[in-house]
From TrEMBL:
InterPro entries: Allrgn_V5/Tpx1_CS, CAP_dom, CAP_sf, CRISP-related, SCP_GAPR1-like. This is Golgi-associated plant pathogenesis-related protein 1. It comes from Alligator sinensis (Chinese alligator). Pfam families: CAP. The keyword Membrane applies. Residues 8-141 form the SCP domain. GO terms for cellular component: extracellular region; Golgi membrane. SUPFAM superfamilies: PR-1-like. The gene is GLIPR2.
Length: 154
């Protein structure tokens, strides 16, 4: 299968997350080796099936997870920018989970401390990117969005 997420790719994804997190006044994330290896394994699994779907680990709440697919080798900044662009659909007046803003809220979730990044290339040259977050954001509990998804500072 394709080569794993390079250190450079992971750092680019991390830096873009942290630039955005700073805008929202929340602490930076750190890369975690264990999350990296889980994200990498899952990216490779996705690349082999070529089906973009969330992992059982994220479904049962063990980690937060963002996924991205592209038909080409996507740069780390572009992946993170695309996730963040969902901010345009997020209502800070009416906070909470919605399927159209889940990538954005996972990125800037205040209480998340660590992230891992995986990337794998499928046989057709398309790439799958997996980001994992710990502790997971997007926790669907009342009040959690107000405390964790803060509007960008002017």
């Amino acid at each position: 299968m394709g080569k794993s997420a390079s250190k450079q790719f992971a750092e680019e994804v991390l830096k873009t997350h942290n630039d955005y997190r700073k805008k929202h006044g929340v602490p930076p994330l750190k890369i975690c080796k264990a999350l990296n290896s889980g994200a990498q394994q899952y990216a490779e699994a996705l690349a082999s099936t070529r089906v973009l779907k969330h992992s059982p680990e994220s479904a049962n709440g063990k980690c937060g997870e963002n996924l991205a697919w592209a038909s080409y080798d996507q740069p780390g900044k572009e992946v993170a920018d695309r996730w963040y662009s969902e901010i345009k659909n997020y209502s800070f007046q009416n906070p909470g989970f919605s399927s159209g803003t889940g990538h954005f809220t996972a990125m800037i979730w205040k209480n998340t401390k660590k992230m891992g990044v995986g990337k794998a290339t499928a046989s057709d040259g398309s790439t799958f990117v997996v980001a994992r977050y710990d502790p997971p954001g997007n926790v669907v509990n009342p009040g959690y969005y107000e405390q964790n998804v803060l509007p960008p500072k002017k």
